[in-house]
Amino acid sequence: MPPRSRLGAGETSTSTLSANNPSDDICPVCKSNRYLNPNLEFLINPECYHKMCSTCVDRIFTSGPASCPVPYCGKTLRKKGFHKAFFADLTVEREVDIRKRVGAIFNRRQDEFETLLDWNNYLEEVEGLIFDLVEGTRDEKVKAEEKLRAYKEGNRGEIEENRKAGLEEADIARRREKAEKEAARQRRLAAYREEEEEKADAQRTKRDVLDRLATSNEDANKIAQHAQKVILKKTSARRNLTDAQANSNGSVLDSGLTINVRGLKKKEAPIIEKPYDPFGGVDLTPSHYTLQKDYDNEWLGNAKNDIRHMAGGYSIEEYYARTMFEAFSGLGVFIEDEKAPEKTAASSTIGTAAAVQAAGGIVSLEDKMELDDVF
Known about the structure:
This protein is an all-alpha fold. It has eleven helices and four strands. Helix 3 (90-105) packs across helix 4 (116-135), helix 4 packs across helix 5 and helix 6 runs antiparallel to helix 7.
C-alpha cells in the first residue's frame, strides 16, 4: 500500500517543530524546569500523551484515577498507565504504542492463510487500520476503534491461542539463546584449560628432556624428536576428548529445547531431485547378453594397440556395444509377425509386373530380377 500523508506541500510536521522546543524541558502542570532541577523526569500516559513530571504524577494520581491536568484535555488517567517515553518524538511514541495494541489483537500467522496473496491482503488491511488510528480524522479513528473492538470480540479464542503460541516461541528463542551462550562459555573455558594443560605438558617435557640429556648418553636429536612426538600425541588426545564433550553437551542442550509448539506446520524432509533422464525411465540394459569390458578376438588384437583408435571421442567399449547389439538384434524379431507385410509387398510387385505386361511392354530379365527382389 503506498504511503499516505496528510501534510501539504509547504506544511511541516508538529514533531519536527517540537524537536527543538525549549518548553520540552518544562512541566506543563507545575512549571518545573530541567535547568533548575537536572534530575527532573517526565512521564507520559498512552491515553493522551501529555507529558508531565513524575512529582505531579505522584501528587495527582496516587490516590486514584483523575482527569488530565493539561488544559482542554480532561481524559481520565491512572497512575499505572504512566511510563517514561522511549522516543524523544511523542508522535513516534504514540504510533509505536498503537502498533503494539493492534498487533496484540491482529496476531494471525502466515501459516493460517492458504495463499501468500491472502496473507498480504491481511497485512495491508492491518496497516490501513493503523494508519487510520495514527493519522486519521476523528470519524476515521472512531470507525477504526469500533472495527478493532468488533474483531477482538469475534475472535477472542483465536487471539488467545496465537498469543500463547507467540509466548512459547519467544520462550524457546530465549532458552536457545541462553543455551548457545552457555555453550560458547564452556568452549572458552575448555580452550583456556587446554592451553594451560599444553603449557604444563611443555614444561614437564622440557624438564624430562633436560634430565635425560644430563643423565644418559643417548643422541640429543633422538631425545628431542621423541619428546616432540609425545607432546603431539597428548595434544591430539586432549582435543579429541574436548570435541566429544562439546558434542555431548550440544546434544543435551538441543534435547532440552525440543518443545511442541501448537499451530506450526510439520517439517518434511526435502525430496532429493534425481538427475535428468532423457529416456524417461526406459531401461536400455540388454536382456539377451551381458556386455563385457574386453573380448579376446583376433580381429581386435591390432585395433586395441593402434594409435589411430586412441583418438579423442573414440571408445573401443562403444564398438563392443554396437557389435553385440547388431549381433543379437534379430532375436527380438518374430517371423510370424513379419509375414503379412512381406506378402503385401510381393503382391504389389506382382501387380505392377502384370500391369506392364497388359500395356504391351516387354519385361527384361534384369527388370524381372528387380521385381522379384522385394528387398
